[in-house]
Amino acid sequence: MEKSRTDENLLNLASKNGSGETPLVPLPGECAQHDDRHRSRGIVLGLLAAVLFGLSAPLAKLVLPQSTPLVLSSLFYLGAGAILSVISVLQKVCSKRDSTSREVDLRFEDAYLMAGVVLFGGVLAPVLMLSGLKHLSAASASLMLNLEAPFTVMLAAVLFRDRLEGQELLGAALVLVGSSLLSVNSGATVTGSVLAALKLAAAAMLWAIDNNLTQCLSTRNPLAVARVKTLAAGLFSLILTRTIGLAMPPAHLCIGALGIGATCYGASVVLYVYALRYIGAARQATVFATAPFVGALMAGPINGEWLRFSELCAGLVTAGGLALMMRHRHVHEHVHEELIHEHPHTHDIHHQHDHVGLPSLREPHSHWHRHLPMVHTHDHLPDLHHRHHHH
Question: Could you tell me if 131 and 253 are in contact, meaning their C-beta atoms sit under 8 angstroms apart?
């Protein structure tokens, strides 16, 4: 109850007319430091998400001979959901000892977004993918699934004012080319039916929708978002496996699969949501497209399948694309309209406000706060405060 009273007090405070407040225009040096920190943090978190997810592929090959992809998928997601549930409970216990709220929990008004994330990314996309895989070669399937990144970029630009430009577009194209080269360099034949290819393309589009919907939830607690998503996807996949009569692997393999899901899937999804918060869906989708190369790199020590020269070249193309994206700077004069909202923040250049008559809050913290109008120029990414039109 104390937290809800605090939130109500902060909302009332934020809604005041701001008497005595003046918009603070940060110095250019402050802006540059702030934006570089956000950019670096988002890219590092995104790469860590890609590394963990990429690691799941060679680990999955250790148990795949005695199971099926759908069964493994259900165990991976359930393992992720289980560990995230435990961490969420521990987080709530710790939060009772600290009056500072650092994350915003999921709320009733988030239900439709969360339902879309689960439906598109956790239910429909996996079904279409598994249906299409039956009639496509591995190389063809990998190429079609690579469409997730460009689809995500396209939807982000059209629907959420999150666009790539110039050097970033070239970098994203190189990342996509690198991952595509990695998909076909094994010498596998690119074959399959048109209908199966369309199913894989549709699955990629659904995951792109999932990515952009998750972007809308990135101001909420990433643990909560990832927990709901993985548990729902895992339960659906498990019900589907039982419905079609697929057998479960031996107990020791089930435990191993749950462990892979907890470490690779669970942590990866949480880091993915954090990265969306800082760099947006378009850039994070491109960064995450490096996951196949991570899997190919780790297949050496795990599966004894060492990188060949062509795969190394594909990785270098991918790395070059990422480097181009990281070097790009998006700078122009832009307007911040007056805004009242709640999300995790520190008192950085966009959060210069007081906590009058309220308990001392450690940073980062989350509460309702008011942004005064501001016009300034600095390098920025399409985070929560910079989703504006470009004329």
Answer: no
Mention every residue, 6+ apart, whose C-beta is less than 8 A from residue 45. Answer: 271, 272, 274, 275, 278
Residue-wise pLDDT for 2-46, tens only, equals 344 444 444 454 444 343 344 444 545 455 555 567 777 888 999
Computed from CA positions of residues 212, 217, 223, 225, in that sequence, does the dihedral angle turn out positive or negative?
A: negative
CA distance 77 to 231: 6
Q: Which amino acid is at 320?
A: G
d(CA 30, CA 388): 21
What is this structure's pTM?
0.76
Q: Is the peptide bond before 250 cis (omega within 30 degrees of 0)?
A: no
In angstroms, rounded to a whole number, what is the distance separating the alpha carbons of residues 381 and 163?
Answer: 10
For 348-389, how does the pLDDT look when each residue is reduced to its tens digit (9 = 90+)? 666 666 666 556 666 666 666 676 777 767 565 666 665 656
Q: Which two structure tokens, joined as six digits, stand for 299? A: 């297949």
Give the tokens for residue 199: 């199913």
Helix ranges (DSSP H) in 106-193: 111-116, 125-133, 138-145, 148-160, 167-184
